């Protein structure tokens, strides 16, 4: 918890800087106070080990090797059972919840006391499979799919796309394991409210294995980091890039413009998050399909309008994955790191965050939601991130910006200016469809808003694990969360990327330790569920 305390201790100095300086605008003052912590935290979490003569962040090695192991151990569940996952979301196997051989719901004591736990075993959660998926997808499909894909392509060139997609495919197996465990070890209290996520499967699952003290320690570490991640990647980064898109599109100026946009986002988010997961789910199940149609529809239109160049794009992606033309440290290993890093931030497989949303599903079968969860990295990375990458590569076929020449997250343009993040993607869309930058702005705001909603729930669950489930605890967290919505819109892209990347990737360390101990439990749940499905099919 020292990291969280360190950050909290820095907040007064940041606000003092805001109050004392008269030469800079509000946004600059906030950024100056925030940047030192962002730099320190990024260096700590992205510590490197040297392989093939290149420094590779240890966290990425853990993520990829873990995902590869789960893919092999679960028999390529990400490919073989992809159709089954679709059928579960569609409700084909909902009858299993009401008839036939049924697994007893796993209900645990709340804070060591069985008195307040669920009394009606037919009440197994708060949302259905689709709502759980929509909430989790809204948490993963965010501006990382738009802004940070542009950053990855700017730094690593087209080849980064290949490694990004590969990481997404492997991450499907990791997400399957996380979401299965999330449902298996969740709490459901007397009124049906669900409390779940890595905090619970780390503490309870590892206790079953004889590692009670380790599990409790990892659960606390995860919860602290999850709160920080909810402030950063799930909140500050989203409001930052939404504000950047609005400011850039309308050519707004003013020292406090970002802060004002952030304040609007905070007010809108506050109205929704007060209602908890049910209200969040009702909003996201409507917003996610709409934003998907807007964004994916525009991307597909651009791709098909330039279909004669798409084969050249795929050739670039495949060839430069191993022989990049971008001036990047480490050659193809450097490009690989960019792809893996962006995929990890975007789909969060291995971070465990989405398991919090999936834990709220109404089911008696943990593996059913594990199957639903594996769809996330596919939707997020394999589909949405890839479309963004293709659009940007198509846009840059004439060398509008220089691959590898990136400073503070901004690429060098032909005219000598620099542009970064969401603005590169906006320029790519506008160059193909006049006026589409306004459509993209709407999509960006919806992406940002839905992600902020989902991550408010993730962070709140972690906060409650640390500090209890009272109303004051709720209110305290939500106020802090909304403050970061405003702060995120005010600071620079470089600062928010450093903080957000490191916060989300830090979750990998405690979470992956738990997954690599508990994976046999996942296999047992999966085998039981497949057996039930086979019986239904044979009847």
From TrEMBL:
<comment type="similarity">
    <text>Belongs to the alanine or glycine:cation symporter (AGCS) (TC 2.A.25) family.</text>
</comment>
<dbReference type="InterPro" id="IPR001463">
    <property type="entry name" value="Na/Ala_symport"/>
</dbReference>
<feature type="transmembrane region" description="Helical">
    <location>
        <begin position="479"/>
        <end position="497"/>
    </location>
</feature>
<feature type="transmembrane region" description="Helical">
    <location>
        <begin position="44"/>
        <end position="74"/>
    </location>
</feature>
<keyword id="KW-1133">Transmembrane helix</keyword>
<keyword id="KW-0812">Transmembrane</keyword>
<feature type="transmembrane region" description="Helical">
    <location>
        <begin position="257"/>
        <end position="275"/>
    </location>
</feature>
<feature type="transmembrane region" description="Helical">
    <location>
        <begin position="438"/>
        <end position="458"/>
    </location>
</feature>
<feature type="transmembrane region" description="Helical">
    <location>
        <begin position="313"/>
        <end position="337"/>
    </location>
</feature>
<keyword id="KW-1003">Cell membrane</keyword>
<protein>
    <submittedName>
        <fullName>AGCS family alanine or glycine:cation symporter</fullName>
    </submittedName>
</protein>
<keyword id="KW-0769">Symport</keyword>
<dbReference type="GO" id="GO:0005886">
    <property type="term" value="C:plasma membrane"/>
</dbReference>
<keyword id="KW-0472">Membrane</keyword>
<keyword id="KW-0813">Transport</keyword>
<feature type="transmembrane region" description="Helical">
    <location>
        <begin position="217"/>
        <end position="237"/>
    </location>
</feature>
<dbReference type="GO" id="GO:0005283">
    <property type="term" value="F:amino acid:sodium symporter activity"/>
</dbReference>
<feature type="transmembrane region" description="Helical">
    <location>
        <begin position="378"/>
        <end position="397"/>
    </location>
</feature>
<dbReference type="Pfam" id="PF01235">
    <property type="entry name" value="Na_Ala_symp"/>
</dbReference>
<feature type="transmembrane region" description="Helical">
    <location>
        <begin position="287"/>
        <end position="307"/>
    </location>
</feature>
<feature type="transmembrane region" description="Helical">
    <location>
        <begin position="503"/>
        <end position="522"/>
    </location>
</feature>
């Amino acid at each position: 918890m020292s990291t969280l305390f360190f950050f909290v201790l820095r907040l007064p100095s940041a606000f003092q800087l805001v109050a004392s300086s008269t030469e800079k605008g509000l946004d600059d003052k906030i950024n100056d106070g925030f940047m030192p912590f962002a730099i320190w935290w990024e260096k700590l979490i992205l510590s490197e080990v040297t392989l093939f003569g290149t420094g590779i962040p240890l966290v990425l090695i853990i993520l990829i090797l873990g995902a590869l192991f789960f893919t092999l151990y679960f028999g390529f569940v990400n490919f073989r059972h992809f159709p089954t996952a679709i059928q579960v979301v569609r409700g084909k196997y909902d009858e299993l919840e009401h008839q036939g051989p049924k697994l007893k719901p796993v209900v645990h004591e709340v804070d060591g006391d069985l008195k307040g736990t669920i009394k009606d075993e037919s009440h197994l959660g708060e949302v259905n499979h689709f709502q759980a998926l929509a909430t989790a997808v809204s948490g993963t499909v965010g501006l990382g799919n738009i802004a940070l894909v542009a950053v990855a392509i700017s730094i690593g060139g087209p080849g980064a796309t290949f490694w990004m997609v590969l990481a997404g495919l492997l991450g499907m197996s990791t997400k399957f394991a996380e979401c299965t465990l999330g449902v298996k070890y969740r709490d459901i209290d007397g009124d049906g409210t669900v409390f779940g996520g890595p905090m619970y499967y780390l503490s309870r699952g590892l206790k079953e294995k004889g590692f009670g003290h380790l599990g409790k320690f990892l659960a606390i570490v995860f919860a602290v980091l999850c709160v920080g991640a909810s402030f950063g990647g799930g909140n500050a980064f989203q409001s930052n890039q939404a504000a950047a898109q609005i400011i850039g599109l309308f050519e707004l100026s003013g020292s406090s413009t970002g802060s004002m946009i952030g304040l609007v986002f905070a007010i809108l988010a506050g109205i929704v998050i007060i209602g908890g997961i049910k209200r969040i789910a009702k909003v996201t199940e409507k917003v996610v399909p709409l934003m998907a149609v807007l964004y994916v529809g525009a991307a597909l239109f651009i791709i098909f309008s330039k279909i004669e160049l798409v084969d050249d794009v795929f050739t670039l992606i495949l060839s430069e994955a191993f022989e990049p033309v971008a001036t990047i440290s480490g050659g193809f290993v450097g490009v690989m790191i960019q792809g893996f890093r962006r995929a990890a931030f975007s789909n969060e497989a291995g971070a465990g965050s989405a398991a919090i949303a999936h834990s709220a599903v109404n089911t008696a079968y943990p593996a059913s939601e594990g199957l639903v969860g594996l769809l996330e990295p596919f939707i997020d990375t394999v589909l949405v991130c890839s479309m963004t990458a293709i659009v940007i590569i198509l846009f840059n076929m004439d060398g509008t910006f220089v691959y590898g020449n990136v400073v503070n997250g901004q690429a060098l343009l032909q005219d000598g200016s620099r542009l970064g993040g969401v603005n590169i993607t906006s320029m790519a869309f506008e160059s193909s469809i006049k006026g589409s930058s306004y459509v993209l702005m709407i999509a960006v705001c919806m992406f940002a808003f839905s992600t902020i909603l989902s991550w408010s729930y993730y962070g709140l669950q972690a906060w409650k694990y640390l500090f209890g489930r009272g109303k004051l605890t709720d209110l305290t967290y939500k106020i802090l969360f909304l403050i970061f919505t405003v702060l995120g819109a005010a600071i620079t892209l470089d600062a928010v990327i450093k903080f957000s990347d490191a916060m989300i990737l830090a979750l990998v360390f405690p979470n992956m330790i738990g997954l690599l101990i508990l994976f046999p439990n996942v296999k047992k749940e999966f085998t039981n569920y497949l057996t039930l499905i086979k019986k239904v099919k044979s009847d």
